[in-house]
Amino acid sequence: MTLQQGPAMIEAEGLTKYYGDFAAINDVTFKVHQGEVVAFLGPNGAGKSTTMKLLTGYLAPSAGTARIAGHDMTDDRLAGSARLGYLPENGPLYLDMSPRSLLEFFAEARGLTGQRRRDRIDAVVELCALRSVIGKPIGKLSRGYRQRVGMAQVLLHEPDVLILDEPTAGLDPNQIHDVRETIRKLGQSKTILLSTHILQEVEAMARRALFIDEGRLIYDGSVHELTAGGKPLEERFRELTGSSAAVA
Predict the structure, then answer these.
(1) Between 230 and 52, where is the model more confident?
(2) Beta strands in 138-222 (DSSP E)
(3) Looking at residue 107, what DSSP letter applies?
(4) How many of the other CB atoms lie within 10 Å of CB of 40?
(5) Residue closest to 32 by CA, chosen among 161, 199, 167, 200
(6) For 56-70, how does the pLDDT look when each residue is reduced to its tens digit (9 = 90+)?
(7) Residue 167 class from Cβ within 10 Å (0-12 exposed, 13-18 middle, 19+ buried)?
């Protein structure tokens, strides 16, 4: 089920990834259309991060196809990556650099020059509220500010598609609120696939949800349908995944 009718910007078609005899994911198929913010849910070890790494071209699939904005991420990864911003969980940052020097470094790597380079750095610094820490070493910043730096780097080249893996993990309530507001703003103009364990985030930001369990997609539909009948989302999570573990 899809809730938007724009062009497909994220496509998983029969995605499968084996490590030896173990299938981390098996025959996962879905599309995320232009303008959608879609939550990607499942218990730990279900295959969420593996799926995201396949979609971004970070991993090669054992079978199936991943496409970003129509570009096959195996055969045409550079063109797909130009349309994509990927924020992995605990994304790597150069801790001895400042946010400004990091953004300058990635702007150069992305081929941004001149006035556009200056404009894009100013824009992401403003959007991610980094002005007050722009010259401080990243290693001295709080986890919340580090997450903002990671988000700024992801947005630098104005990607159409964002894949965000646990963007609020480990943040305090104020930091979660700030990241949530940033994602809401981005969702007005971009296609977003968002992995999270914080189910309140799903209801706050996404209209559609994908559930994966034991490497297989088990639900693709609206968040509203999930909670129809008055059941809380956490209870539906346990029903769908068969998990008795608490959702953090």
Answers:
(1) 52
(2) 161-165, 191-195, 208-213, 216-222
(3) H
(4) 27
(5) 161
(6) 999 999 999 999 999
(7) buried
* DSSP run (H or E) holding 232: none
Amino acid code (one letter) for 159: P
Residue 179 structure tokens: 């990241």
Residue with tokens 């709080």: 142
pLDDT reported for residue 5: 63
Report the alpha-carbon distance of residue 248 to residue 244 in Å, rounded. 12
The tokens for 42 are: 């499942």
How far is the C-alpha of 104 from the C-alpha of 102, rounded, in Å?
5
pTM for this predicted structure: 0.88
Q: Look at residue 223 and give its three-state secondary structure.
A: helix
Quote the mean pLDDT of the chain: 89
| Residues 6 or more apart in contact with residue 169 via CB below 8 angstroms | 89, 90, 196, 197
122 three-class SS: helix
Are residues 49 and 247 in contact, defined by beta-carbon separation less than 8 angstroms?
no
Q: Beta partners for 196?
A: none
Residue 176's contacts (CB-CB under 8 Å, 6 or more residues apart) are 168, 198, 201
| pLDDT tens-place string over residues 24-46 | 999 999 999 999 999 999 998 89
Task: Locate 171 and state its tokens.
Answer: 């943040």
Superfamily covering domain 1-83+160-248: P-loop containing nucleotide triphosphate hydrolases (3.40.50.300)
Sketch the domain layout of the chain as residue ranges. Answer: 1-83+160-248, 92-158
pLDDT tens digits, 126-150: 989 899 999 999 999 998 899 899 9
Whether residue 66 contacts residue 15, with contact meaning beta carbons closer than 8 Å, is answered with yes
